[in-house]
Amino acid sequence: MIEESVGTKSSRKDYKLHELKFTTTERILPLVPMPPSDPLVSERFWLAYSLPNIPLIRSHLLKEGRILKHDFILLLEIALKLFSVEHTLLEIKSPITICGDVHGQYYDLQTLFEIGGDPSDTTYLFLGDYVDRGYFSCEVLILLFCYKITFPTTFFMLRGNHECRHLTEFFTFKQECEHKYDQEVYDLVMGCFDALPLAAIVNQQFLCVHGGLSPSIRTLDDIACIDRFAEPPRDGSMCDLLWADPTEDFSPQEDCKYVFNHLRGCSFLFSFKAAEEFLENNKLLSIIRAHQAQEAGYLMHTKRETTRFPAVITLFSAPNYLGLE
Q: Residue 166, CB half-sphere, CA atoms under 13 Å: how many?
C-alpha cells in the first residue's frame, strides 16, 4: 500500500513496504509467464546423432526452464572433446561475426544472434567472459555449447579471464551453478574452461584475444606453444592474454611499452608502441579484444600511421552490464 503522509505540507509519499502483500502462487507481473515446472526431457533435448534440439532449447531457456543434469553433463563432455583437439591459437577465415563479453546475459545473447546472423549460416567467434555478473550464465553456456557441438568448424569460443575457478567463486557463477544444478556440473564446466583456446588469427590479419598483449609474447608461435590446460596463473603470457588492457592514452607519444595494471591488480597495460611493434613483427593489421565495458559496444583505438586502421579494437557484447545501457 502507498499512503500519503498527513500533518505536513510536503507532498512526499511514504512507502510502507511492510504492508505490501505478495502472492506466492502467481507472478507479480501477470503478463510474464511462469517458468516451466519440469526440466526439458532428454527425448526432446537431443536430436539424432547426439545433436541438441537448438530451437526447442533456446525457447525453453528463454522461459527460464532447466535441463536434466545428465543432459548437461553429456553436453559438457562432448564440448570438452571438441575444445581439447583445437589449437591454442585458432586460424579462422572471414566472413565472421566476432562478439565480446556476454556475462550471463542470456536474453541479450538471443538478440545478438538475431542481429549477427543465425549460426547455421554464420561463422562466430566469441572472445570470452561468458559467465558471472548476469543471472543466466548457465543458460548462456548451454546455448553456446549446443552451437559448438552442432557447428564445430564454424562456431568458436576463446577463454576469458572469468573462465576460471578463482573469479567464478568470487563472483556469481559458482553459486548460480550449484543452485540450478550442483557441484559436479560446476567442476565439469571448469574442465571445459581449461580446454578453451586462448587466441585466434582471423583472415591472417587480426589477432583476436580476450585481454591483450604480453611482454613475454613476441611472435604468434609464442601463443601457439602455451600449455593452456590449467587454471590461469597469476602472471606470465597466459595471464596477460586474458587480463591485459591498452593504456588509457594509447598514443604514439608514449615512451613505455608495458606498465603494471594496477586497476586489475595483475598483468600489464600495453601501449600503442607495444601494439605497433607486435603487429609489425607478425605482419598483422589489428588486435581485436574484449575485456572492457564500452557504452557503444565497441571502441576503435588509435589508428596506425601506415595503415590508417585502428591498432586495437575493443568489443563488448553485454549491454546491461552493471547498469550500462
A: 9
What's the distance, Cα to Cα, between the start and end of the chain in Å? 31
For the structural domain made of 83-323, what CATH number should be given? 3.60.21.10
What is the model's pTM?
0.90
Q: Where are the domains positioned within the chain?
A: 83-323
Say if residues 100 and 315 touch (Cβ distance below 8 Å).
yes
- Exposure of 68 by Cβ count < 10 A (0-12 exposed, 13-18 middle, 19+ buried)? middle
The identity of residue 142, as a single letter, is I
Q: H-helix or E-strand containing 209?
A: strand 206-209
- 40, β-bridge pairs: 67
Q: How far is CA 192 from CA 20, 80, 156, 219, 316, in A?
A: 45, 5, 13, 27, 23
pLDDT tens-place string over residues 238-263: 999 999 999 999 999 999 999 999 99
What are the cell numbers at 25?
502462487
As annotated, the active-site residues are: 162
